[in-house]
């Protein structure tokens, strides 16, 4: 059901026909994110994303909103560290309209000077909103610490200084340089006919120059760091992390299981120990933040200032345990079934299927059958997970970011170690 065609300018069209659904999700994916920005222009990709909804030579911002609303559809966009996506969800027979709308905002947005200044204020307010939400801010701070002086450490939305300094022509130039054939994918899943969509894409986007893929900052080797951002908060928020595998690594399925066992849900070890047994935190979880060439494994929690050191010691103890002891067979089985179930349930959404098409192409260079993914999960053994933990959980790549009211003496530096006790 999946078909893929590449136009002469390098633009790739990937579709997945899903029987029995009436909707279609379509996305224009640009291999262009914050890691591809000059440091002094950090936030330009996110700024461009905002401006593309502010009017074209054919449509005002209000007309864009009314046109998608008039068919009961949905239109949105997002920017990450590695790509931007502009996407819509409509009934299958409205797909040509949705593509025309997306192509119009990509190709013909006017970047009206008054709208640029209005949207600059909106983005600055967005940055302030993140600053006022410690449970959001801590993750950006951790990325800046872990990927220090590397483009992956740049905040996706930029900083108040860089956003304030971006000029209209810089936004236009960035769009023109990056929104080119080799950087673009059109992905659609649901009630879609590949050949009909291909004809429309070729007509609307086939004349784009091929261009070239952007550089993303090169290789990276993490170093051990601890940082405190002082805030007058009731809780101390922290992220503790170490390196992880890139998105295309052959051992990534063991990495997914490792993360889920550590802190991926209510049955995970960290949730059971820190929340259920010790009552130290309401929120505790782990996640993977992985990219095309590197990644990190992160644990987040928020505790009272007096409990933060104990919570961190417990996190380190569980990471150490994963390095030293194979996980129990029943827990491995349950976590494996959890991940497989999550994957299969996600396929009931055309949005998720569309995103999966793009990410598989970007990270893996092609599509991976669901049966193959299930088979890869089933092949992972307890010893595979232990060996991967032993490889990744090392002192040299440990990073610890605090946010809150904590004295320097509260840093548990004396035992910030994964070495055996």
Overview of the molecule:
The protein has two domains: 2-206, Cytochrome Bc1 Complex, Chain A, domain 1 (2-Layer Sandwich), CATH 3.30.830; 225-410, Cytochrome Bc1 Complex, Chain A, domain 1. The protein is 44% helix and 18% strand. The protein has helices spanning 44-51, 61-69, 95-108, 113-131, 134-146, 160-165, 168-178, 194-205, 252-263, 269-277, 308-324, 329-346, 350-364, 370-379, 382-392, and strands spanning 2-6, 12-17, 23-30, 74-79, 84-91, 184-190, 225-230, 236-243, 284-290, 295-303, 399-404. Strands 1-2-6-3-5-4 form a six-stranded mixed β-sheet. Strands 7-11-8-10-9 form a five-stranded mixed β-sheet, sandwiched between helices. The radius of gyration is 23 Å and the shape is globular. The N and C termini lie far apart (53 Å). The model has no long low-confidence stretch (mean pLDDT 94).
Number of strands: 11
- List the domain count as a whole number: 2
According to CATH, what is the class of the largest domain?
Alpha Beta
Give the count of helical stretches: 15
Strand content range? 15-25%
What is the CATH H-level superfamily of the largest domain? Metalloenzyme, LuxS/M16 peptidase-like
Helix coverage percent: 40-55%
GO biological process, one term: proteolysis
Cofactor: Zn(2+)
GO molecular function, one term: metal ion binding
InterPro entries: Metalloenz_LuxS/M16 (IPR011249), MPP/UQCRC_Complex (IPR050361), Pept_M16_N (IPR011765), Pept_M16_Zn_BS (IPR001431), Peptidase_M16_C (IPR007863)
């Amino acid at each position: 059901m999946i078909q893929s065609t590449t136009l002469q300018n390098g633009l790739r069209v990937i579709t997945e026909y899903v029987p029995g659904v009436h909707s279609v999700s379509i996305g224009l994916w640009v291999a262009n994110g914050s890691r591809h920005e000059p440091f002094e222009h950090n936030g330009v990709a996110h700024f461009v994303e905002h401006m593309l909804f502010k009017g074209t030579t054919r449509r005002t911002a209000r007309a864009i909103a009314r046109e998608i609303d008039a068919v009961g559809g949905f239109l949105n966009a997002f920017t990450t560290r590695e790509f931007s996506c502009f996407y819509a969800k409509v009934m299958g027979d409205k797909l040509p309209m949705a593509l025309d709308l997306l192509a119009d905002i990509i190709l013909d947005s006017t970047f009206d000077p008054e709208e640029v200044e209005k949207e600059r204020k909106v983005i600055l307010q967005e940055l302030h909103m993140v600053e006022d939400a410690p449970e959001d801010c801590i993750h950006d701070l951790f990325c800046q610490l872990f990927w220090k002086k590397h483009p992956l450490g740049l905040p996706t939305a930029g900083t108040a200084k860089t956003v304030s300094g971006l000029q209209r022509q810089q936004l236009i130039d960035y769009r023109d340089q990056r929104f080119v054939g080799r950087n673009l994918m059109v992905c659609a899943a649901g009630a879609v006919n590949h050949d009909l969509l291909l004809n429309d894409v070729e007509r609307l986007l086939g004349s784009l120059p091929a261009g070239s893929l952007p550089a993303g900052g090169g290789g990276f080797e993490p170093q051990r760091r601890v940082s405190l951002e002082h805030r007058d908060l009731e809780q101390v928020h922290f992220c503790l992390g170490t390196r992880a595998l890139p998105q295309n690594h052959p051992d990534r399925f063991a990495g997914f299981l490792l993360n889920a066992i550590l802190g991926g849900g209510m049955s995970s070890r960290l949730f059971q120990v820190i929340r259920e047994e010790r009552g130290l935190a309401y929120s505790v979880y782990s996640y993977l933040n992985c990219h095309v060439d590197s990644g990190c494994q992160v644990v987040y929690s928020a505790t009272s200032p007096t409990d933060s050191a104990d919570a961190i010691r417990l996190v380190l103890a569980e990471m150490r345990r994963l390095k030293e002891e194979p996980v129990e067979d029943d827990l491995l089985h349950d976590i494996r079934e959890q991940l497989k179930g999550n994957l299969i349930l996600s396929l009931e959404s055309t949005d998720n299927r569309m995103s999966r098409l793009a990410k598989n192409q970007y990270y893996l260079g092609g599509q991976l059958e669901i049966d193959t993914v299930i088979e890869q999960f089933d092949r992972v053994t307890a010893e595979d997970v232990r060996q991967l933990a032993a490889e990744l959980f090392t002192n040299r790549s440990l990073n610890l970011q605090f946010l809150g009211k904590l004295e320097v003496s509260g840093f548990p530096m004396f035992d910030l170690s994964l070495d055996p006790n």
